[in-house]
TrEMBL record:
Localization in the cell: Cell membrane
Keywords: Cell membrane, Membrane, Protein transport, Translocation, Transmembrane, Transmembrane helix, Transport
GO annotation (BP), single: protein targeting
Name under which the protein is recorded: Protein-export membrane protein SecF
Family the UniProt entry places it in: Belongs to the SecD/SecF family. SecF subfamily.
MF terms (GO), sorted A to Z: protein-transporting ATPase activity
Phylogenetic placement of the source organism: Bacteria, Pseudomonadati, Pseudomonadota, Gammaproteobacteria, Alteromonadales
């Protein structure tokens, strides 16, 4: 299936300088925001109290959120678990207030609005656990990038490996920058989305790299930039179809999925868009800047035994 019937090659690399300037601007802006504003860490990382509440009837999550917000629990995270009558509420820690007292205060507020509300369980996540999750999450992304660097270097060529890792780092930094600039909550679901963005962007980049290598070996004449343009044009239909189908699903999650996975859908939506851009203008541009050429991608010729011997008379 082809959405676009392209007979002529699109000169993607003619925009390499504007694309490089845009990427540098976005990365600097993201790093600046991360340094100044940092991330709005969720309870998974900061620690807090988690209570399970049961209702006699189906629980209205929006109404529960409003009840808690009006009673100075503006940071409460409310979601269903198990059934529509069971609600999970997470509350951030407060200085000088015991976790048990915090949970009791929240239940008291809910009972005033609905007498059937009852606490069925509570737990507390300490800040030390949150720090450990932060460290492990960062380590997971670092290990993923190192493994990708090694794989692409062995599978293709080191210039493509550096281009792929540059594209993935580019996507992660800018996605984190979006959450920092907008002040969106960063919890474990968003971390999972960031790791998924790495996988999505890598898949797109590998397809592009594979086509570039194939065309370098197949097209006998042509400069490196021209062959990269041909390869990007040939994979454009596939890139558009993959991105559009993914975005349609994510839009449904964003608008219908509810507040619980709103951050997850936001990170993936933005990540898919920025990942598609980076597979075209970051990975390929880095490889081109590092001097990728036909000679680097030609298979090594194995000399046959006795080929250099003179024939016997």
């Amino acid at each position: 299936m082809q959405l676009l019937n392209m007979k002529n090659t699109i000169a993607f690399m003619t925009l390499k300088k504007p694309a490089a300037i845009l990427s540098v601007f976005l990365i600097i802006g993201s790093l600046t925001s991360l340094a100044i504003n940092q991330l709005n860490w969720g309870l998974d990382f900061t620690g807090g109290t988690q209570i399970e509440v049961g209702y006699a009837q189906t629980a209205d999550l929006e109404q529960i959120r409003k009840q808690l917000e009006t009673s100075d629990f503006k940071d409460a995270v409310v979601q269903n678990f198990g059934s529509s009558q069971d609600v999970l509420i997470r509350l951030a820690s407060r200085e000088g207030v015991k976790p048990s007292e915090l949970g009791d205060a929240a239940i008291k507020v809910l009972k005033e609005a609905d007498s059937s509300a009852e606490m069925r369980g509570s737990s507390y996540v300490s800040s030390s656990v949150g720090d450990e999750l932060t460290e492990q999450g960062g380590l997971a992304m670092l290990v993923a990038l190192i493994c990708i660097l090694i794989y692409v270097a062995l599978r293709f060529e080191w210039r493509f490996a550096l281009g792929s890792v540059a594209a993935l780092t580019h996507d992660v930094i800018i996605t984190l920058g979006l959450f920092s600039v907008l002040g969106l909550e960063f919890d474990l679901t968003v971390l999972a989305a960031v790791l998924a963005v790495i996988g999505y962007s890598l898949n797109d980049t590998i397809v592009v790299c594979d086509r570039i290598r194939e065309n370098f070996r197949k097209i006998r004449k042509g400069e490196s930039e021209e062959i990269i343009n041909i390869s990007l044009t040939q994979t454009l239909n596939r890139t558009i179809i993959t991105s559009l189908t993914t975005i349609l699903v994510l839009l449904a999650l964003f608008f219908v999925g509810g507040a619980t996975i709103h951050g997850f859908a936001t990170a993936l939506l933005f990540g898919v868009v920025i990942g598609t851009y980076s597979s075209i203008y970051v990975a390929s541009l880095v490889a081109l800047t590092l001097g990728i050429s036909k000679e680097d991608l030609m298979p090594t010729e194995i000399e046959k035994e006795g080929a250099d011997q003179e024939p016997m008379v």
